[in-house]
Specification:
1,4-alpha-glucan branching enzyme, GH13_cat_dom, Immunoglobulin-like, eight-stranded parallel beta barrel, hydrolase activity, hydrolyzing O-glycosyl compounds, Branching_enzy, glycosyltransferase, TIM Barrel, about 25% helix, five-stranded antiparallel β-sheet, 2 domains, alpha/beta, globular
């Protein structure tokens, strides 16, 4: 991201010069640079969270020597990668079977690990046959569907056998990245393409020869850093870190893939990974329980950075204090937050993720985000995260692309691993370690930050090898179940929904699918993909189609058909417009209806125009009809409830495309990258009436359903 001159970014932390000696003298506390965090982000009552300590003992890797009845007590290897069993101890029964010899090799002690039981348990795969009773038309594609479910069951069996179950497999963040223990810090990274690796950062004066990592035969690099002599951690909290690798593409310094925080220093282009482990008295502790899942969701879609009325990047703290009470007052019961995962390019709207486990540092620290979520829970609001597992930024400097110097590390190699429209990389969902990474990522946000669920972005792109591009879905079942289906991706979606609903029964899972994939919102045990809701994207398209027509060409029968045209037992989130329609190059419903009249005739002390009167009336009715008929949940993008004028335009400079076309920028202006909530609050403007109608509509649904 490029910072605009004169714009103050309140929560972007700064780097300062340490008073310690510049040379590395063996004491890791001597750093040339350190990361300074805000000290006033939390009230005294919000402090003190003591994490559970993790084992630091380097673990030996065993070969795959399991018999069908046994799995390793401590470590198993799948596709050559070590992993620790990290079950919830109170829910796991371990039976010792002693050593097992197989093909002349001796494994470590064996134990049988059963799936977790109790309230947080992942049910075993069912028969997957109920989908045929729900929709007999699926019988014509039974071969594909049974194959898909068979792949899912096989994957579950393999995860049970080699990893001790999905509950353990989805806790990769306790194995990879930086693991703090009583005696030091262990750092592990999967980078099979690297020829050598070392950990560098402020803590060792960026010396690539100071902390050399060792690689096992399966491509996992590891190093253990013991505590300093006085017991302090070897890497100070807030210091910058990277992994230095000799790769097939040359020498490169990368941000660790499992990094929990990364920051772009003012005046610098690349991001830096930050070792984030604040003192106990500065860690945020959650005060409020997570709300129960409501019968019907009314979702307020929001972007923290652009949520200020001023042309700045807003902070988690300001959103917590100013925007959350507004959402509650308007009558919504859930907030869906966009652009949470760190993304180097601000104008990507958060969809070109570079650091999957790190919250965006533009808006504050990880603890600031936790404070926001806790406040929402205090207000009774669910907090949904717009999570991106459909693709990743092609940024080689800051992200996963070419991480170990190879094209096919986390992604498919060649053209299959590149999304030509989004200019981004596509995950290889058939890779064991990619599954570990993504499943653990989903669980990390639920476990560490207490998110109440997800809106999975770009699911259509995941489920088909054509990514839904230049394809018109007509509803013919052969379009969904054939060679164009990426079964690996669908199996991943089944696994992640299995994990979410098994371990977090109150969590909500929403998928953005434009294709209308049958079984999308049917439980996994019944043979479905397992989402709770799909986004009913056809409704917004229908309204735009109608807004381009004459009034007399609006057909109520066609409107009602679009609103109610959804699959039996598969719930939908209805919306008249989302953030997509608000972006520059598109138009919101209010702008379609009232256009330039919005600039001159929205004040109550001057006459209206027929266009304004018609626009306000239809703006209200479109929302009422959509909420009443469109689905089992409702969504609105922030500001659209009062007909926010104009469009969203992120700060950007001039650009010349690969084809030579020149695209003018906006001089890195934030003027159109904010939300003018003051317009909806002004009692002298007609926006106020539109906002009050939306508020009354939300409270009507709350009371009567």
């Amino acid at each position: 991201m490029v910072y605009a001159s004169g714009i103050r970014l309140p929560c972007v932390p700064h780097l300062y010069k340490s008073s310690a000696p510049s040379g590395f003298n063996g004491d890791r506390r001597s750093t040339s640079l350190s990361f300074l965090l805000k000290k006033d982000s939390f009230s005294p009552s919000e402090k003190v969270l003591v994490p559970g300590s993790q084992s630091d003992d380097p673990s030996a890797v065993t070969d795959q020597l399991e018999t069908p009845e046994t799995v390793s007590e401590d470590i198993e290897v799948r596709n050559g990668i070590e992993s620790l069993q990290m079950e919830d101890n109170e829910n796991v029964e371990i039976e010792d079977h002693g050593p097992v010899t197989l093909q002349g090799k001796v494994s470590s002690e064996k134990s049988e690990v059963k799936r977790e039981v109790g309230p947080r348990s992942i049910p075993p795969p069912g028969a997957g046959q109920n989908i045929y009773e729900i929709d007999p038309n699926l019988l014509g594609h039974r071969q594909h569907l049974d194959y898909r479910y068979g792949r899912y069951k096989q994957m579950c069996e393999d995860i049970d056998k080699y990893e001790g179950g999905l509950a353990a497999f989805s806790r990769g963040y306790e194995k990879f990245g930086f693991i703090r223990s009583d005696t030091g810090i262990t750092y592990r990274e999967w980078a099979p393409g690297a020829k050598s690796a070392s950990l560098i950062g402020d803590f060792n004066n960026w010396n690539p020869n100071a902390d050399i990592m060792t690689q096992n035969e399966f491509g996992v690099w590891e190093i253990f850093l013991p505590n300093n002599a006085d017991g302090s951690p070897p890497i100070p909290h807030g210091s910058r870190v990277k992994i230095h690798m000799d790769t097939p593409s040359g020498i490169k310094d990368s941000i660790p893939a499992w990094i929990k925080f990364s920051v772009q220093a003012p005046g610098e282009i690349p991001y830096n990974g930050i070792y984030y482990d604040p003192p106990e008295e500065e860690k945020y502790v959650f005060q409020h329980p997570q709300p129960k899942k409501p019968k019907s969701l009314r979702i307020y879609e929001a972007h923290v950075g652009m949520s200020s009325t001023e042309p700045i990047i807003n902070t988690y703290a300001n959103f917590r204090d100013d925007v959350l009470p507004r959402i509650k007052r308007l009558g919504y019961n859930a907030v869906q937050i966009m652009a949470v995962q760190e993304h180097s390019y601000y104008a990507s709207f958060g969809y070109h993720v570079t650091n999957f486990f790190a919250p965006s540092s533009r808006c504050g620290t990880p603890d600031d985000l936790k404070s926001l979520i806790d406040k929402a829970h205090e207000l009774g609001l669910l907090v949904l995260m717009d999570i991106v597992h459909s693709h990743a930024s092609n940024n080689v400097l800051d992200g996963l692309n070419m991480f170990d110097g190879t094209d096919g590390h986390y992604f498919h190699s060649g053209s299959r691993g590149y999304h030509w429209m989004w200019d981004s990389r596509l995950f290889n969902y058939g890779s064991w370690e990619v599954l570990r990474f993504l499943l653990s990522n989903a669980r990390w946000w639920l476990e560490e930050y207490k998110f109440d669920g997800f809106r999975f972005d770009g699911v259509t792109s995941m489920m088909y090898t054509h990514h839904g591009l230049q394809v018109a879905f007509t509803g013919n079942y052969s379009e969904y179940f054939g060679f164009a289906t990426d079964v690996d991706a669908v199996v991943y979606l089944m696994l992640v929904n299995d994990m979410i609903h098994g371990l977090y029964p109150e969590a909500v899972s929403i998928g953005e699918d434009v294709s209308g994939m049958p079984t999308f919102c049917i439980p996994v045990q019944d043979g479905g993909v397992g989402f709770d809701y799909r986004l009913q994207m056809a409704i917004a398209d229908k309204w735009i189609e109608l807004l381009k027509k004459r009034d007399e060409d609006w057909k109520m029968g066609a409107i009602v058909h679009t609103m109610t045209n959804r699959r039996w037992l598969e719930k939908c989130v209805a919306y008249a417009e989302s953030h997509d329609q608000a972006l520059v190059g598109d138009k919101t419903i209010a702008f379609w209806l009232m256009d330039k009249d919005m600039y001159d005739f929205m004040a109550l002390d001057r006459p209206s125009t027929p266009r304004i009167d018609r626009g306000i009336a239809l703006h209200k009715m479109i929302r009422l009809v959509t909420m009443g008929l469109g689905g089992e949940a409702y969504l609105n993008f922030m500001g659209n409830e009062f007909g926010h004028p104009e469009w969203i335009d992120f700060p950007r400079g001039d650009q010349r495309l690969p084809n030579g076309q020149f695209v003018p920028g906006n001089n890195f202006s934030y003027d159109k990258c904010r939300r003018r909530f003051d317009l909806g609050d002004a009692d002298y403007l007609r926006y106020r009436g539109m906002q009050e109608f939306d508020r009354a509509m939300q409270h009507l649904e709350e009371k009567y359903g």
